[in-house]
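Thread title: Can someone regenerate the structure for this chain?

I was given the following input by a collaborator and told the matching structure tokens would be attached. They weren't. Posting the sequence so someone can regenerate them.
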Amino acid sequence: MSIHDLIARRATPAPDQPPVALPLALADPRLDRARMRKPRVSFIVTSYNYEKYIVECLRSVARQTYANWECIVVDDVSTDGTVAAVRAFVDSPEAGGRFTLMERSENGGQMEAFRDGLGLATGAFVCMLDADDVLLEDFLEAHMRAHLSVKTVAFTSSNQYQINAAGEIIGGQHMDHQSGGHYRHVRLTSFQTGFWIWATSSSMVFRRSTVELIMPTDGTTFRICADYYIAHFCHLIGDSLLIPTIHGCYRRHGGNNFGSNPVLGNINSVGNLDRHPPHDLFRQTMISHVLDNFDVFYPIFMGKGLVKFLLRLIKPAELPGLVAAYPKAFPGPLWRYQWLAARQWWAKRATPVSEKFRILPGPPPQE
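Best answer:
Regenerated them for you:
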């Protein structure tokens, strides 16, 4: 337990002492007078053969009420008319000079297209937007209010409508999204078993610094489901926040890389799990990334904190080999880390779900 959690637990206020409301950063006139700017958000749209949908996606970006954004479209060597459609939009008055098209020289899949877009991005926050999805006009407004006035987290995820190929609304929510009608601060989780509690990558706004920290540096890549790696790794480092309201549309058209199943009713069957990369491949990639970049991660967590973080990823049977192979990360005897792993496991079991999915008050409405 961190010192911050300990203070929060012991300093419970009396019922008649409501907390002081923090100001809404996006509407704080003092920041304007101090010449502080709203953060820029970089949309990174990755596309492969989505000529049919991509212009509608880009138009939804152009309609955002939050003004400080840029959009980078990365085409992964499409063989249809995607590039021509994007070029025409980028050059149109509707785009307003705020869209950039990047054409890859060879097809690399979702993660490599996103990595290229991230290299061009200038925003402090990034959105990994699928080219077949559509945002509602208040998407960025809702996410930046959550980031700056609800909780400081690695990323936020809002709920989504589900639409079909023709743009018809076929679902009033995304069944993966576990907000339950509340802002929920998701914390104290591990990655030794798989779970997914957010909507799709198009529902998320990440801190760019966290995304850059976790991108694989050993050549490992994920052609599909890169968002599974990015979302989980970012969440383990800096937590996530579920936004209960709907601010976008996830398109189910049968040609999705993974989410290819139609909406069938009260069954959450998004796609064929046999096509999903193995959970352990994601987990091992995360472990290797931290250990191979020890000098980067050590100042963030420090010694014992970094071990505790790794134990959220490592299975007990793997611990002896890793302790032997990485003495810099594990300078003590094996029994010490086995004891710490057991203690951490019991603490996790004893933590109520209400603490792992902590309900928070949302930002007050802006005047």
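The radius of gyration is 21 Å.
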